[in-house]
Protein backbone atom coordinates (compact mmCIF):
# COMPACT_ATOMS: atom_id res chain seq x y z
CA UNK A 1 0.00 0.00 0.00
CA UNK A 2 1.25 3.46 -0.79
CA UNK A 3 -0.88 5.72 1.40
CA UNK A 4 -1.87 5.70 5.04
CA UNK A 5 -5.12 7.47 5.84
CA UNK A 6 -6.24 8.68 9.26
CA UNK A 7 -9.84 9.75 9.80
CA UNK A 8 -12.02 10.86 12.68
CA UNK A 9 -15.55 9.49 12.75
CA UNK A 10 -18.55 10.42 14.84
CA UNK A 11 -20.46 7.88 16.93
CA UNK A 12 -23.04 7.09 14.24
CA UNK A 13 -20.37 6.53 11.60
CA UNK A 14 -18.42 4.32 13.98
CA UNK A 15 -21.52 2.15 14.52
CA UNK A 16 -21.95 1.87 10.76
CA UNK A 17 -18.28 0.98 10.37
CA UNK A 18 -18.56 -1.77 12.97
CA UNK A 19 -21.72 -3.12 11.33
CA UNK A 20 -20.02 -3.25 7.91
CA UNK A 21 -16.97 -4.97 9.38
CA UNK A 22 -19.19 -7.55 11.10
CA UNK A 23 -21.40 -8.23 8.08
CA UNK A 24 -18.63 -8.53 5.51
CA UNK A 25 -15.81 -9.78 7.72
CA UNK A 26 -13.63 -6.87 6.63
CA UNK A 27 -11.16 -4.74 8.53
CA UNK A 28 -11.23 -0.92 8.69
CA UNK A 29 -9.04 -0.54 5.61
CA UNK A 30 -11.19 -2.82 3.48
CA UNK A 31 -14.33 -0.90 4.44
CA UNK A 32 -12.72 2.44 3.58
CA UNK A 33 -11.34 1.17 0.24
CA UNK A 34 -14.68 -0.31 -0.79
CA UNK A 35 -16.51 2.84 0.32
CA UNK A 36 -14.26 5.01 -1.83
CA UNK A 37 -14.71 2.66 -4.81
CA UNK A 38 -18.48 2.71 -4.35
CA UNK A 39 -18.63 6.51 -4.23
CA UNK A 40 -16.31 6.82 -7.23
CA UNK A 41 -18.56 4.52 -9.27
CA UNK A 42 -21.47 6.92 -8.72
CA UNK A 43 -19.63 9.87 -10.23
CA UNK A 44 -20.47 10.93 -13.74
CA UNK A 45 -17.29 11.19 -15.79
CA UNK A 46 -16.22 14.78 -16.27
CA UNK A 47 -16.24 16.09 -19.75
CA UNK A 48 -16.44 19.38 -21.49
CA UNK A 49 -19.78 21.11 -20.91
CA UNK A 50 -21.68 21.07 -24.15
CA UNK A 51 -24.88 22.51 -25.51
CA UNK A 52 -27.40 19.72 -26.09
CA UNK A 53 -27.99 19.12 -29.77
CA UNK A 54 -25.23 21.47 -30.89
CA UNK A 55 -23.94 20.34 -34.28
CA UNK A 56 -26.54 17.64 -34.80
CA UNK A 57 -28.45 19.34 -37.59
CA UNK A 58 -27.16 20.73 -40.86
CA UNK A 59 -28.25 24.35 -41.31
CA UNK A 60 -25.32 25.57 -43.35
CA UNK A 61 -24.50 28.12 -40.63
CA UNK A 62 -21.64 26.65 -38.56
CA UNK A 63 -22.18 28.80 -35.45
CA UNK A 64 -25.97 28.98 -35.48
CA UNK A 65 -26.42 27.45 -32.01
CA UNK A 66 -23.48 29.10 -30.29
CA UNK A 67 -23.29 32.66 -31.66
CA UNK A 68 -25.34 34.95 -29.38
CA UNK A 69 -26.02 37.43 -32.18
CA UNK A 70 -27.74 34.68 -34.18
CA UNK A 71 -29.89 33.75 -31.17
CA UNK A 72 -31.39 37.22 -30.63
CA UNK A 73 -35.17 36.99 -30.43
CA UNK A 74 -35.15 33.20 -30.42
CA UNK A 75 -38.04 31.75 -28.43
CA UNK A 76 -40.16 34.90 -28.35
Could you characterize what this model shows?
With 76 residues, the protein is an all-alpha fold. It is built from two helices and no strands. The N and C termini lie far apart (60 Å). 0% of the residues are buried.
Quickly list its features.
76 residues; mainly alpha
**Shape verdict:** rod-shaped
Mean pLDDT reading: 87
Number of helices: 2
User: Structural class of the helices, strands and pairings?
Assistant: mainly alpha
State the low-pLDDT regions, or none.
none
Order of helices and strands: HH
Structure described in brief:
By secondary structure, the chain is mainly α. It is built from 2 helices and no strands.
Draw up the topology in text.
Layout: H1 11-24, H2 28-42
